[in-house]
Structures are given as structure tokens and as C-alpha cells.
Amino acid sequence: QVQLVESGGGLVQPGGSLRLSCTASGSIFSLNDMGWYRQAPGRERDLVAEITNSGFTNYADSVKGRFTISRDNAKNTVYLQMNSLKPEDTAVYYCNADVDTLEGSILSRNLEVWGQGTHVTVSS
Q: ∠ CA(52), CA(76), CA(50), 5° rounding?
């Protein structure tokens, strides 16, 4: 059993900044790829940024140069630093992780886990 909990969302003015955090807990053997997705009203859930265990990152074109994803493996946490926010960034942001778990002698690999989401609203 693994859970992801996001925090850091809220209301911010255009041009402002927010930092989202996502912390994993539970029967974690290994945290593999992690990422942030977002879903605006009436739209599909899209990838914002992802980061591998080795530190390789990938960003959606719409956030390149403004957002930075990072991770702290000692804290089982992934972050999303969001700068120069725009109204079109308004969405529910979801944390995602590929997780290896070990329960007893059973190792399960590459389980997909989602957080509950945190709201980000960019408005004047």
C-alpha cells in the first residue's frame, strides 16, 4: 500500500510562483519515475513534468523555462516549482509515481500510483 499526498496549491496572481510538493508513504521499496500532471475543467489530464530516478527531466512545451521538477529521495518527495504563472496554468495538479513495493517476500514492480490532486488557480 502506497499513498501520494500533494500540497502547496492555492490562489496566485499572474506572474506569481508556487511550489508543489508530493510525498510518498507506505510499503515503498523503490520510487522510480515520478511526475506531475494537470487537468483543467473540460480537458484531459496532461503531463506537466517528469523526472527519473537518475535525474533526467522532461517538460511539456507549455511550461518549459517556467517550471522545474526536482526530487529528494531521502524524503520520498517530488517538487514542482512553478514561476511566471499564467491563467492557463489553472488546473488540478496530480502527482504520479511508478513504485516498487515489497510486502513480505513479494516484490511488485512498476505499480502506478496517483495522488488526490491539489488545486492551482491563477487569477487577478
A: 25
